[in-house]
Specification:
single chain, alpha+beta, Alpha-Beta Plaits, 2 helices
């Protein structure tokens, strides 16, 4: 099951790399990403999918919220996964 996480953060060097790295290190695959720069705060929307094993999206959100410069973390409901037509 995939989930969309929206992260608002202050612009700083390496901020996007820190966010993506955390997601990968915590056992999630990044299926899609959308980056929207805005005055004052930026938004990164990520569609993530857990790798096999016990993983809780609430734990990942809490870890993201503790990153330097993150101002808010929100979760969209489950995103349907599209499969390629054969």
């Amino acid at each position: 099951m995939t989930t969309q996480i929206d992260v608002d953060f202050l612009p700083a060097e390496g901020a996007v790399v820190r966010l993506i790295g955390l997601v990968e290190r915590r056992g999630y695959e990044l299926d899609a990403m959308n980056y929207v720069p805005a005055p004052g705060t930026h938004r990164l929307s990520m569609v993530v999918r857990p790798r096999p094993g016990p993983r809780r999206i609430e734990t990942l959100k809490a870890q993201i919220a503790r990153l330097y410069g993150v101002t808010s973390v929100s979760e969209m409901s489950a995103v349907p996964r599209l499969e390629a037509a054969s």
